[in-house]
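Standup notes
- DV: blocked on the single-chain target, sequence here:
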Amino acid sequence: MKQHPQRFLTFVNEAKKRIKEISPSMLKEKIDKKEPVTIMDVREDNEWPTGHIPLAIHMGKGVIERDIENEIPDSQSPIVVYCSGGFRSVLVADNLQKMGYTNVYSLENGLRAWIDAGFSIEK
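- DV (later): unblocked, structure below
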């Protein structure tokens, strides 16, 4: 597992206090029940082709704040964001909430946890 710098981890942990997380099994249940939710992969462009959660769309962390309103204009729409390990997505969820999105979740421990739970990915 990648070791992140302490200041980054402190920054993420502060943001975690302000956001909601969802477990991979809870997200899978929403997908299976066909509940309305936008699943957004916020990893870098070069990470997307390595595999992603089925039904996910890609909008990298570097552009999401700029582009989210065009993709999801309704600030009450349910959104689940994820990255590889659940760190960057926490920061994205925090920023989206600051922008007025009220139903945002970060996937707990990211794509890694999704795969570890035995759920499939698409390439």
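- Follow-up: The chain has five helices and five strands.
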